[in-house]
Amino acid sequence: MELDEKLSKARDLVEQSDFVRVISHHDVDGISAAAIITNFLRNKKKGFLCSLLKNVELKSIFEEENELFIICDMGSADIESAEASGKNIIILDHHQPLRESKSEKVVQINSHLHGINGSSEACGSTMAYLFAGDLNLISFMISGALGDRQGTEFKGLNRRLVDEALEKKVIDKKMSLIIDCYDNKNLQRMVESSIAPFFKGLSGRSADVVKEIEKKSEKAINSFLLALLIEQGCREDVIDDLIGYVYRLPLGMSSQELYSLLNVCDGLDMAEKGLAMALGDKESYEEIVKRREQYYKRAIAGLASLEEKGAVKMEGLQYFYCDDLGMSGLYCGIGMRYIFDQGVPALALTNTKDHTKISARGTRYLIKKGLNLAIAMKKAAEKVNGSGGGHDIAAGATIPLGMEEEFLMEANRILKGPYDQV
Ligand SMILES: [Mn+2]
């Protein structure tokens, strides 16, 4: 079935229903996609119940008594149980699908099935936005794409939709520094309170040196910050992220601000607050802003100590222990991009009561060289009776306690390359 045909079939299903069960993912893209769908349903005066879930099987969800389900930013992996449920289900996904839907009742709108690359040209929110067809909801398409790291200039379908909104003057864009911080009072405070980029020796500490630079031209400021990142060993693909487009959104905040607030919601397990904010709840907005400062402070302190301690190097990987499970993915991702050696992926290990949990992160540079952390984590974890998987650039594993050494040896064996022999 063509994309347009699927979209109109899905819209018909909504028209015929009074109540829709919405399921989406817990991360920034998932919350953004849910924001689009729930705003759309509210405008249509439809009842809905929305849950934001971490990776789960949807089989039990499909057992609920509902006339219509909309699944965002996931669902394609559950195509079999969707079809078996006999329910009306709309899937809006951008993860690699297993196959087309064979059921009349399951409308699977997945970018990949229509020649659109789901890692670089469309995210879950893009598919939700395409379905809703409401320019006023473009804010969330953009935050979703930022959340899934699809650039700020955008490509493919993302670009087409953003260009359309620019042309109609619903949004505008400006080239700008992109600093993910909690205090943007002045440049010095931005550098001091920034988690991405993490400026070695300055973020989380006093960045007095920046004071002088602040008086200079925008160009001089940009080159100064770029030089800092080069000096601390960041590679081109990471440095490129420092400057990009920031969009002014109809929501009344910048794309960077919306992304940052939703990112906090994901990190602090309060995705529902992010959705409430997206539906216009002021109190939720204020609470998220307040919590963001605490969260960033905690993150920056952790990153500064990670910078001091460093990671343990092996031939094919580097690792560190992190006792804060909720922060391990963030530390690992930011550590990988701004603190550690750029030549091998980073792993964070956390011992919980029952298991050792591992977060693994790479860079776009390593991916180009053939790194695939999803496969490496899966294989190394299975070797020690654990499980693992994820994406090429970001993956994770859970293994039995006390098996770290064996796991690290096997991961190192796989990751020391050459990657194409994995
Ligand atoms: Mn996504």
Provide keyphrases for this structure:
alpha/beta, inorganic pyrophosphatase (n-terminal core), binds manganese (II) ion, six-stranded mixed beta sheet, Diaminopimelate Epimerase, Chain A, domain 1, globular
pLDDT < 50 runs, ≥5 residues: none
Ligands present? manganese (II) ion
Largest sheet: 6 strands, mixed
Q: Which fold name is given in CATH as the topology of the largest domain?
A: inorganic pyrophosphatase (n-terminal core)
Tally of domains: 3
Radius of gyration: 22 Å
From the coordinates shown, what is the CATH architecture of the largest domain? Alpha-Beta Complex
Helical fraction equals 40-55%
Descriptive notes:
It is a single chain. The protein is of the alpha/beta class. The chain has 3 domains: 3-139, inorganic pyrophosphatase (n-terminal core), CATH 3.90.1640.30; 175-303, no CATH class; 310-421, Roll (Diaminopimelate Epimerase, Chain A, domain 1), CATH 3.10.310.40. The protein has 18 helices and 15 strands. It has helices at residues 3-15, 28-43, 59-62, 79-85, 124-132, 138-147, 156-167, 187-192, 209-214, 218-231, 236-239, 255-267, 271-278, 282-309, 325-339, 364-368, 373-383, 404-415; strands at residues 19-25, 47-53, 69-72, 89-93, 106-110, 172-177, 180-181, 194-196, 243-248, 312-313, 318-321, 346-351, 355-361, 387-390, 394-400. The chain starts with a helix and ends in a 7-residue tail after the last helix. The structure holds manganese (II) ion (MN). Manganese (II) ion binds at residues 29, 73, 94, 123-124, 148.
